[in-house]
Amino acid sequence: MQTQRGAVNRARAVRKLARADYGVGLEAGIIETKYGVMTCAWVAIVDRGGHVGIGGSTNMLLPTQVAKRLRAGTELGEAMDEFANIKNVKHKMGAIGILTRGLSSRQKAYEEIVKLAVARFLWREKYKGRVE
Q1: Is 109 among the domain residues?
Q2: Long-range contacts: 125-131, Cβ < 8 Å, 24+?
Q3: Cα torsion at 109, 14, 20, 52 (round to 10°)?
Q4: Does residue 17 register a pLDDT over 90?
Q5: Residue 70 CB: number of other CB atoms within 10 A?
Q6: Is 79 within the bounds of a domain?
Q7: CA-closest candidate to residue 57, choices 118, 99, 106
Q8: Residue 76: enclosing H or E segment and its boundaries?
Q9: pLDDT (tens digit, 9 = 90+) per residue, 44-77?
């Protein structure tokens, strides 16, 4: 998946640039399903040894008018700005916050998938030999 690959590439790049023990990369996107266009997000954590922890989800069905704009090539942030009549939604509550009317937020969703990616490092011995 392109979005997963993007998260891993970001994590590798930031770890190398920062000369850190770990790098974290987040990548959001959209997927087409039989139910319509949905959001998706992935986080990757990469350590110095090249081990990759990955977590993802935040799949949410997007309204028809937003999906139509995305299929025409509009970026999700711009389509959500139009939908909600709010400028810069992607740097505020995100599509998740808008569409759940504040029940959730992009921040909360991303915090959860970061926790999922950490699992690979909490159980290192169970993932032996899995360097990507």
Answers
A1: yes
A2: 127/51, 130/51, 131/49, 131/50, 131/51, 131/52
A3: 60
A4: yes
A5: 17
A6: yes
A7: 106
A8: helix 76-84
A9: 999 999 999 999 988 999 999 999 999 999 999 9
* Cβ atoms 54, 75 nearer than 8 A: no
Six-digit token pair at 30? Answer: 């959209």
Residue 132 lies in a domain: no
Structural domain including 64 reads 2-127
User: For the chain, how far is it from start to end, CA to CA, in angstroms?
Assistant: 15
Count of positions (residues) in the chain: 132
Among residues 67, 57, 62, the alpha carbon closest in space to that of 26 is found at 57
What total number of domains does the chain contain? 1
Task: Give the span between the Cα atoms of 9 and 25, in whole angstroms.
Answer: 7
User: Concatenated DSSP letters for 20-67?
Assistant: -SEEEEEEEEEEEETTEEEEEEEEEEEETT-BEEEEEE---BPPHHHH
Report pTM: 0.87
Q: Is 46 contained in some domain?
A: yes
Eight-class DSSP state of 131: B
